[in-house]
Amino acid sequence: MESLSLQEALEVLENNASFKPNVEILPLLEAQNRFLASTQICQKSLPSFNSAAMDGFAFNHTNKGELKIKETLFAGDKKEIILQNGECVKIMTGAKIPKGADSLTPFEEIEGGFSNKDSIFVKEEGKIWNNIRQEGEEITKGETLLKEGEELDENALMLLATQGISYVDVYEKLKIGVFASGDELKEPWETSSPHQIHNSNATMIISTLKSFHFSAHYGGILKDNKETIAKVLQSPYDIIITSGGASKGEADFMREILQNNATLLIPSLKIRPGKPIMVAKMQNKFIIALPGNPLAGAVLLRFLILPFLRKLSGARAHFLQSIPIKICEEFSLKNRMDAMLGIANHEGFKLTQKGKYGSSCTLPLHLSNALGIFSENFTLGKAGEEIQALPFKLIWGDKKCNFIN
C-alpha cells in the first residue's frame, strides 16, 4: 500500500471509528471529562421562577410616584404576595418576584435616596423585566439540556446539578495499552551505555493521553522479536499504541505482523515529520504504531490520533479546531507537507527555533505551544499573513475544520 496524504488518513480514521464503548452510571463528580451516553432533557426551567437579579425594589413598571413598601423578600422565602397598584416590595438577589411586579430598581437608583422605611418615590415608569431574571430565559423544561456525546466538563456538570441529577450514564473509558519498541532502549530508571537511549516515548505518550483525560497502562519495552510482538498485540485492550517498529528497517517486525494479521488502515503518511506511522484494525481492537523518533511521534499523536481516540470514546466534538493567527516572523518551507512546531502569543505565530530541528529532538516540543500544518503548496510564510494554527491545548468541535494551510 502507498503512503496516504494527511487528508486521506483523516478520512480513513473518521470512517473506521465504528467502535462503540459500553455504558456505565457514575456519580456526578466522578463523571468529569467523560462523554454522555444519552441526551439529557431539561426537567426544570432555568430559572424556574421569576427572580431578582439584584437587591432593590420590585414593582409594576407602569407605576411611578410614591410606592408603599408592602413586604421584604429574601431568597428562599415562600411568601405568596400579590402587589396592587401603588405598591412595591423590598427584595434581595435571588428572591421570587411577587405577582403584579415586572420591574426592579436597585437601592442606589431610588429617587431622593431611600430614607423612608414605609415608601419609596419613583420618578418615572420603569422598564418591563428590568433587573429581573425571567422564568425559563436560559432554558425551558422539555428542551435539550445536553446532547449524547457531549463532554462533561465543569460547566456541563453544573448544568446537570441544576436539574437535581446526581448520577449520569456515560461511556466507559477506552482500555489503552502503551508499549515502547527497540533493543536499544533503557527505561529512565535504568543505567544506559553510550550506545543506548532512555525510553522517553512511553512517558510522552502516556502523559499526553492523560492531559486529554485518557487513561493508559504501560506494558514495557518490546524486544525486536516477532513472537513477542505478536503475543502483545493479542492483549485485551481496545487500543494498543507502540512507539518504534513502524519503519521498514531490518529488525522492525511490526509492519510484517500487521500486514499479515490485520487490516492496515494507514500504512504510512506523506508528511514530515511522521511518515513511518501505521494504524491497523485487528479483530476488535486498533493498533497504532507511532514513529520511534520522539518529536515525530508526539506531533502525530496530537493532530491525528487524539481526534480518532475521542471519536472512539463516543465524543460528539472530536474534530480539531484551528485558530487564525498572523505570522510574525517570515519563514520558508520545502515543497512538501510539513507539520511545524510553533510559538503562538500576542505577537502572532513563529516557527520554533526557526524550524531548524530534527524529528529525533525533544527540546523543541518543550519550547512550543502550537502546531502549523502546511501543504505542499505552502512554501513561504510572510510576516502579517494569516494562517491556521493548532494550539497544544487542543480545541474540539462537532464539525470538520480545515486546519491545513
TrEMBL record:
Return the InterPro entries for the record.
Answer: MoaB/Mog-like_dom_sf, MoaB/Mog_dom, MoCF_biosynth_CS, MoeA-like, MoeA_C_domain_IV_sf, MoeA_linker/N, MoeA_linker/N_sf
What is its EC class?
transferase
CDD domains (UniProt xref) = MoeA
An example of a GO molecular function for this protein is: metal ion binding
Pfam family name, one: MoeA_N
Example GO biological process term? Answer: Mo-molybdopterin cofactor biosynthetic process
Q: Where is the MoaB/Mog domain?
A: 177-311
* Catalysed reaction, written as an equation: adenylyl-molybdopterin + molybdate = Mo-molybdopterin + AMP + H(+)
Quote the EC number.
Answer: 2.10.1.1
Q: In which pathway does it act?
A: Cofactor biosynthesis; molybdopterin biosynthesis
Sorted keywords for this record are: Magnesium, Metal-binding, Molybdenum, Molybdenum cofactor biosynthesis, Transferase
Please provide, in alphabetical order, the Gene Ontology terms of the cellular component aspect for this entry.
cytosol
Cofactor dependence is on: Mg(2+)
User: What protein family is recorded?
Assistant: Belongs to the MoeA family.
Function statement? Catalyzes the insertion of molybdate into adenylated molybdopterin with the concomitant release of AMP.
What is the protein's given name?
Molybdopterin molybdenumtransferase
